């Protein structure tokens, strides 16, 4: 039987996302989440710790491109701007390509984010990254190497299964550039990102999962649910939340010959 992980990204990003993920996790509608450790509050982490089980796993949503670092800005100066905030994804990548980012500072911040989860009683089962930084050309392999050094054994594999738009083609190129660096990790064989480009629906779920199941035995569905939309974000969080909450995904999954599992089962 095929296996599907439904992972909710961005836990801790804001209250609407955090509350939506807690509700869906408690109801058994999703099987995994990844935490933005530099945004999540202590209360967020305590609530999440109460949901952890073999059926619901928690990982790190490595964030090096939004908000402030968990480390002191003085400890990671090559990662932050004059205001002590992380650079954007494109700025960080360009700085890395120019040799302006120090690997030891990347490692310092990754350690800080992992330690925050562990201190809250959340032993991370896996990792991914905000806006797929861990699969950017050159930067991605460096981040994957650090995660491996720190004992992370499972990560997201970016494949953009079922996406034929321009961004999907870019993501596929990124995926190809980091394929070798992913070798030591356990990963799902394909990633469904259908709901990143269209409102969540049964048809979109069926199409995306069916395409991914043709590629792999274990598939991850990337989700970004929220109780409200985030200003300035292209994500359609409310339709995702409502779709998962409705519960029809599990019936559709059975029809497609799959079962819901968590990253812990990978």
From TrEMBL:
GO terms for biological process: carbohydrate metabolic process. InterPro entries: Glyco_hydro/deAcase_b/a-brl, YdjC-like. Pfam families: YdjC (PF04794). Keywords: Carbohydrate metabolism, Hydrolase, Magnesium, Metal-binding. Its cofactor is Mg(2+). It comes from the Bacteria. One of its GO terms (molecular function) is hydrolase activity. The keyword Cell cycle does not apply. PANTHER family: CARBOHYDRATE DEACETYLASE, YDJC DEACETYLASE FAMILY MEMBER. This is ChbG/HpnK family deacetylase. It comes from Hymenobacter polaris.
